[in-house]
Structure formats: structure tokens, C-alpha cells
Amino acid sequence: MGEMVRFTIDGREIEAEKGENLLKVAKRNGFDIPNLCWMEHMLPTGSCRMCLVKIEGQKGLKTSCTTEVQEGMVVTAFDEEIESIRRTNLEFILSDHNYDCSICQKSGECELQEIAYKYQLGSEEIAKLNYLAEKPELESDYTSPVLNYEPDKCIKCGRCVTACTVVQGKSVLSFVERGFYMYPSPDFTNWGDSACDGCGECVQSCPTGALVEKPLVSMIRAMDIDKKVKTTCTYCGVGCQVEMWVKNDQVVRVRGVNAKPNNGRLCVKGRFGYEFITSQARLTTPRIRKNGELVEAGWDEALDLITEKMTEIRDTYGSDALAGLASARCTNEDNYVFQKFFRASMGTNNVDHCARLCHAPTVAGLGKAFGSGAMTNPVEEFADADCILITGTNVTETHPVTGTYIRNAAAKGAKILVFDPRKIDIVGNAYLWMRQKSGTDVAWINGMINVIITEG
Questions:
Q1: What is the band of 7 on the pLDDT scale with cuts at 50, 70, 90?
Q2: How many CA atoms are closer than 13 Å to the CA of 200, on its beta-carbon side?
Q3: Is the dihedral of CA 107, 112, 113, 115 positive or negative?
């Protein structure tokens, strides 16, 4: 931790690290300052003007989300004047929103709705406002396979743009037009024709119903779900923490959890690839081929057949006539039992796994170099690296969340060096792209080792 400072909020003494975000510190200490544009892990913009506070010795009101705490600072978070200004600002925001919340898919998790309820502002009060300009009519965009965009619910807070540009590092979203006519747009076109890969970071960050998931399983609101289950994403090996929203024993929505290693980030697979869980195409009973067709069978019948056939092969042709292929989708415990069965019961070491092809060389290399066949740093530390050399991996496709941290590093000025015959996606962020000929990896790596050694 850095230097600690003391200051007061509404007469209460607070201790925090010097330079910390004032709004974050206030919330951590129980001060429920309203805000709509601020999110942890994102750059503050101060655009919604709801988190205004007074700071002794400074003129006017300050946005607490863009203010750093300092020694001796005296902050007023709540008084009659501040609350009156917040209410007025909220009226302007709601007048731009102009939507019936009772039929909104985001109802129950809409931050704007919660703040409007707190200040007792509804559609009747907003309808009495005199609009300074005619609000443009923008068409809703349902062209994305994973999300819906309804601009009449957008409050121009900018969280979706920040999520896309700063967090995910993709820069697909940006604001177009100005003033009353400003709205977020993906690549200045519709969602379906844009470079959006469907990670859904914008959906998770949106405080209203302007950006919502397509109802992949069923229409559902936050208030209607039965439970939330925290678990680990089942796709790649990054280990992203996810929160599954469950209704009637079906997963109906997925959110990224603000925990390591992903800190809330997800990719399109982790956020939207959950339909397989209750898919009608999934096998729920064993099947046995009879007369050339696969037909359903009982577990006892299927296991007896497996035992009979495998024993027959072993006894006739020897143990090495058998081989087992394990699955990366299984747990470590399942795969341990699987290999134990083949080695101990069937008497063969013919056991293989997809990781032998892609990961075994790195396990061997890491083991010799560092003593363990695993990465030596947390995934998020990529964002703070000065130089990253990428070879033998299409990281943004195979491990997308790791790719976001590499993009973050590039945005901070890190030099990204890509050695790949293909123009993979991360080349767009690269300082240098070396397109070696296939099969020359050992040559260029030895060349680099030679320079490292000879030049000290």
C-alpha cells in the first residue's frame, strides 16, 4: 500500500490510500453516493453528474468519481443543496430515457430505475418537463446474434464505450454525433455488420435497458430469477469466474464476477455459450448400435457391453490393443480415475489427452526453466508488462480474456511482438509482426538466444 491519508466525509474521519478514487472510498465506508457513469476497473468520466460533492476550499461542486483523496480534505456528500442538484440532474437524465420501466427486460437490475425510485421520480413528473430540443428517433438494432440495442433507453453515460475500448481493448464502440443527438455506435454501422465479437462487456456495464442480452433461453428479468450460482467458466483454461442466473433449473443469464482472474470480464463463449446445458440435443441415456442404428439402452446394459468388449479385446490381442482418450472438459479427478483404470485395470499405458499436443511442450519447457509446468504470473499482470512476445498462440481467439489484458498493455505503450505466419487478430495491436516461414521456429528462437547471450 502507498501513503495513507486522513480526511472527512460529512464529519466522519476516513482513512484511505493517497490518490484513491473518492467515490470508491466513500462507497467502501457506507456513503451511498448515487452514480450512473462510474464503474470499478473503468476510467471515470464524470458524465452523469450524479456523484457531485462539496470540497472545502474548492469552488463549485466536484464529481467524486474523478476526484482523488488527499490529506485533510473535508468533503460534504449530502446536504439539501447537493440533493436538489442531483434531483435536477436525474430529471434531465430521465427525460432522455423516456421509457416505461414496467415492461423493460432490465427491470430489477436497472441502476437508473433504482435511483429514480430513491428520489421518487416517475414518468408523470418527467412528462411535465419542457424539452430543450426535439429528441431524435433512432431505430432499435437487433442485428447482433447475442445482444439487443434500444437507443431510446440510452442515457449517454459512456460506460459501454469505456467497457469496449478500455476494458476489452477492442474499440468497436464509440459515440457519434454531439449533444442531444449523441449515441453509441459500433463501427458507425449496425451491430451485425460491425467488428463486435459479442463479448457482452457493454451489456454488463450498461446501467439501463439500452443494451441487453438476446433472450437465448427465455425472456427473464432480474426480479424473476430463482438463484445466482457462482462457478468457473467451462471453456478455455483462463478460469474466469462467472455468476449463473437460474430460473426453473435453467441457466438464463451469465454475468462476470468481479474476482480474479477475469475481474468481471468475459468473452462471447463464457457469457453467451450456456444453451448447451439444457439443449435437447444432449445425450441423457447411453446408446448402443444395433442393426446399424444407435438406440437408447439402460446403464447396466451399456456398461456390461463395454466390459465384455474391452475384456475380449484385451484377452485376445493384449492390453496394448486398447487406448484411452481423456477429455479436457472433465475434472482433474475424473481424468485421474480414467488413466488409473487403463493403467491398473486394463494394463496399458496407451492413455492420451488433447493437451499432449498443445500443452505438453510448454509444460516441459516451463518445468525446465522455472521448475513448474504452469504460468508464473497472474493473468492480469499482462496489462502491466512493458514487452510481450507472442508466438504459437492465437491468444485473442483461444483465451480471449487473456487477450484483453494484452490489449490493455498495448494501450499503455507496451511493445507487442508477434511471431506468426498468419495475420492473427492481435497483430492489430503489435509493435512488430515477424512472419516467419513455417518450420523455422527453432531457427529464430536460437537466433534470439544467441543475441541475448552474446550481447549480455
A1: very high
A2: 22
A3: positive
Nearest alpha-carbon partner for 440 in 371, 392, 387, 368: 392
Judged by DSSP in three states, 4 sits in strand
Whole-model pTM: value is 0.85
- What is the domain count for the chain? 3
Q: 384 with 339, same domain?
A: no
Residue 323 within any structural domain of the chain: yes
Backbone phi, psi, residue 359, to 5°: -110, -25
d(CA 160, CA 162): 5
Q: Angle CA(75)–CA(79)–CA(83) in degrees, nearest 5?
A: 110
Q: Distance (Å, rounded) from C-alpha 131 to C-alpha 134?
A: 7
Range of the domain at 407: 377-454
Q: Which of the two residues, 222 and 142, has the higher pLDDT score?
A: 142
Contact 220, 253 (CB under 8 A): yes
pLDDT in tens, 153-210: 899 999 999 999 999 999 999 999 887 788 999 999 999 999 999 999 999 999 999 9
> Checking phi first, is residue 433 left (phi over 0); if not, alpha (psi -120 to 50) or beta?
beta
